[in-house]
Amino acid sequence: MKNLKKISAILLVMIMLLSSLSAMAAAPQGLITNVKSFQSGVNIKGELDTAYAGKTVSILLVNANADMNSLSFDDVAYIDDCKVDSYGKYSLTFTCRDGFDPANCKVYARIGSEDVTSSVVNAVSEENVLELIDYTVNISQDLTVSTATVEVANEFNITDEALIQYTPVLAFFDDSERLIEVKVGETNNPKVQTIIPAGTRTTKAFVWKSIETLIPLCVPDVETKKDNLNILIIGNSFSVDGTYYLEKLAKAEGIDMNVAVIQHGGSRLSTVWDYREKDPDGNPYFSFQYIGGSTTGGVDLDYAFEQGVAWDYVLIQEWRPDAGTYEAAWAPYVTNLAKYIKEKCPNAELGLQMTWAFELGKPMSGYYDGTLDDDPNEKGIGQKAMWANCYNFNKRAAKEMGEFQWKEGTTVSFGGVPVTIVPSGYAIQYARSVEVDGVKKFDTVWDGGKYDDAAHAFDALPEGSKLVADADDLISDADKAAGKIRLHRDGFHMSQAGRYLIGCVWFETFTGKSPVGNSFVPGTETFDSDVSGATYRTSKSGTQWVSYDAMDAETATLIQNVAHEAVTKYNKGDIIE
Question: Which end of the chain is more exposed for a tag (fewer CB within 10 A), N or C?
Answer without folding.
Answer: N
